[in-house]
Amino acid sequence: MPTSxxxxxxxxxxxxxxxxxxxxxxxxxxxxxxxxxxxxxxTLRHLVNEGMGENTLRALTSDLAYxxxxxxxxxxxxLPWPAPEALLLKFVAHHLWDPEKKKSDPEHGMPAxxxxxxxxxxFLRTAGPHAPDTVRRRLASWSTLTKWRGLSxxxxxxxxxxxxxxxxxxxxxxxxRKSAKAVTGDVLAxxxxxxxxxxxxxxxxxxxxxxxxxSGGRRRSEIAGLRLEQIAVEPPIETETGDPxxxxxxxxxxxxxxxxxxxxxxxxxxxPVDALDAWIALAKIESGSVFRKVDRWGNLSKRALxxxxxxxxxxxxxxxxxxxxxxxxxxxxxxxxxxxxxxRGIPLxxxxxxxRHRSVQQASSYYNSATRRSGRAARxx
Length: 381
What we know:
Elements: H1 9-18, H2 29-35, H3 38-49, H4 54-75, H5 85-95, H6 99-104, H7 112-120, H8 132-148, H9 158-170, H10 185-193, H11 200-214, H12 220-224, E1 231-237, E2 245-253, E3 264-269, H13 271-283, E4 292-294, E5 300-304, H14 307-320, H15 331-343, H16 348-355, H17 360-374
Antiparallel strand pairs: 1-2, 2-3, 4-5
């Protein structure tokens, strides 16, 4: 039996990955330990120590694992650092291709043996070419990791830029929203109606839906990663009629769109606070992750929900409400918040203060859609 000094490189990397488990997709730890090199793991640990945002680091790790798996399948070696231009061009050719041309030329695009290898490992789920944005993101991650190694690559080469531009032009794809339909107030009400019992799952899902929506349409990663320490009690809000409304502040810390040292804060009041408090009390949560797994037997886990579970909850509640689950996703809560704000005449700057959108152009698209749909120009007949 090997001693601690005789551990295999894979076992050693797995233990090192454990030290940064909080910010990595550790359900695939053993797989990452197999794929990544010692230098890869050291780079990830360095990024953690540098304070890189958790979501950004998870995305980098996911992209790095895919790139390594692709390189091993396509050229039979680990990723070279820095990558030569020819390998970058091969990556583009394998992922951005014309489905019609592939019917007559099987060698066009990603070779069958490479795609089969990636599919068996769970890295490849689609049969067609990748989305251009996915390819650009993975190349950007590749470039970022190259720079963190103190190296420079050919990522800005004219040949690579031209290859991407021509490939995208040859295989146009319609732009799709992350959620086909927004979870507006009426849709949310139908979903909440399915959370009718006082059982753990219903109380939790009710709190997730209400908190995610009312806090400005929080991203699923922000909801899944929410910790009790981020929630602060605020003075009740006085109302002209009725009792004061309970209020809470949620300190998001550094988010996808905030500055490195900026602590984003959003607020909840009224019913969402009641729903959140009910869940915390029922689950007896005293610290750590707020939203946790509930197993098939109704037992509460100490483990936090994964971001994908928030998406699954939205789809499940949509189906239970008699809606088409394929039309909705967790992002629908984010787009739904802004759409509902537009429908209710809330000024865009006020809504953006809560949603924390940085791009007026992006946020205003929801307002423009709502205005066009209900405006006079759509009702000429």
